[in-house]
Structures are given as structure tokens and as C-alpha cells.
Amino acid sequence: MPELRKDPITSRWVIIATERGKRPSDFSARSEHRKVEFCPFCPGNEDKTPPEVLAYRSDGRLNAPGWRLRVVPNKFPALRIEGDLNRQGEGVYDKMNGIGAHEVIIETPEHKETLATLPVEAVEDVLWSYRDRILDLKKDQRFRYILIFKNHGAQAGATLEHSHSQLIATPIVPKRVQEEVNGAQEYYQYKERCVFCDIVRQELHQRIRLIAENESFIAIAPFAARFPFETWVLPKGHDPFFEDAHKQEYMDLARILKGTLMRIDVVLTAPPYNFIIHNSPLREIEGRHYHWHLEIMPKLTQVAGFEWGSGFYINPAPPEEAAQYLREAAV
What we know:
The protein has helices at residues 120-137, 175-191, 195-206, 247-268, 305-310, 319-327, and strands spanning 3-6, 13-16, 54-57, 67-73, 88-90, 93-95, 101-106, 145-152, 164-170, 210-213, 217-220, 231-235, 273-278, 293-298, 313-315. By secondary structure, the protein is an alpha+beta fold. The chain has one domain (3-327): 2-Layer Sandwich (HIT family, subunit A). The strands form three sheets. Strands 3-4-7-9-8-13-14-12-11-10 form a ten-stranded antiparallel sheet, with helices on both faces. Strand 10 and strand 11 form a beta hairpin. The chain is globular.
């Protein structure tokens, strides 16, 4: 019997299509290796990207080989950092200038490596770069939110194969983030507890959707997963801001993130995927109700007419089964 499940944070309903239940081998999406004639992210091509805004390297040279991670402005940015917002209204319509920041985190100098195959220390470098850029960009009073995201594979939206993630700072809080913040705030006002902390406690107790855990984090298949093998990584302790984590927490996050992506690669034959970090808005002062987390969404199905028209998602892989496959993966 199919189930309708309600997300406890946003109150969004999801259809878990148990009668369509699929095994990992039923999904046809596969990562493809593209023939590379030129890659602007490879060492030696630093002059083919905008000048770096951050780099981890062993010497003091700028925009030259010898780095282990670089962050550069996106050459084709969705938003531009120069200018004023210039908010305007035209009758019922509102608009403002497309002000923001759009940066690319080049995660490794090695073209064929991925976050799943990199050493855990290199994954930790990636996380530190996210922190460093958030702390720098949040000084700009025009920005209200910074979204970290990764598109891995062409089917997930990556235009270059070389492993990278992106950051976009916006002058408004994105609607999906605001829905989570509002839902978490309503939950806190009613129960005087963080909904994410309650989810962590319940998943650690039940363990049927638990994929992995370490001292600081858990990886779970969320109860109302929108997509097959959707996976969340959450801090065990309440933490509203990603950038406030400590060194041990980044070390633990690097380990569980790498391990989870390895499990996904093994079970689903290295699929394309997206991940996002949902963090508290930059001007958020009260942090008791919201809890930052990372969402990983393998690109295994397509969103079609019913989903677009209704707002319901149809997930043919029950989260409990997906968690079991990932939990038992040989990594």
C-alpha cells in the first residue's frame, strides 16, 4: 500500500510508492566520463579562471600551480557583486538588481578525483573553504543568505567534470530555506524543542533509517524523502550555523560525508547527484529552533507533471529500504 508521509519540518507531503519499490539496480542513471580536451580547473590553467579569492597552497604564489584547493568567482555568475540593490515596485510586481556573489570551489587539482575518492583530509579542506568563504561574505550587509551546493555529473547540472562545488550569496532568503526556518520555528514555539534535534534523537533510537554515525554526525534517509536514496547529514548536537563548527566537527563531517558518498557510489554505481547545505540565514539572531544540515540527492528519477502541478513528490524507494542498502554497503 502506498503511503503519504508528512515532512515534520515543512509540512510537505510525499508519496512513498511502496508498490513501485525499486532496488538500486533498477535505477538507470549513471555518471559518465566525458572526453576532456581542455579543463580550466586543472593546474597550469589558473589564468583561464577569474583571480582566486581563496587558495590553500604550500607556497605564497597567487593564481599559479601548487595549490590543493582554489576558490574563484564564477566566470558566468548568476548574480554580480558590484552595485546597489535598488529595490523597486511596479504595481503588484517587485524587483531589484541582481546583486550577490557566485563562486566556484575547485576541490582538488586532480581532474578525475571526486569527494568520494579524495583523502579525508582533502574533503576536510573543502569544508574549511566553505567556512572561510561564509565568514568573509557574511560581512557584506547586502547579503541575507549563502547557499553552498554541488552538482556532480552532467545529469545533475555540472558543466565541467573536474570536481567542484559552488556558493551563491543572495540578498533574500530562498523560499525553500524560509519554509524550513518557519516550520522549525512553529515546532519550537509549540514544543520548545528543535525539530531537527528531535529527528536526530528518534533516528538514533529507531535506527531503521540510520545509514552511518560518528561522534558528531549522523547520516539518515529522511522519513519523508522526496527522492530515491535521498540522504541527510545532521550534527548530533544543536548547531544553527555551519560556520561555527569546531575543528573536530569538521574532521568528523569530512569522514561521514566521504563515507556516505562512497556508499552511494557502491550501491548506485556512482550516480550523478546534488548536495546542498541548508544553513541559518545570515542575519538570524535567535538560533534555538534551526539546525544546519546537508542534503544529498542522487539524480535517479525525473520530476514530472504531477510533481510540478501538485507539489507532491513520488519516491519509489522507501527510505527504510534505501537506508538498509546504504548501511550495508561494503566501503
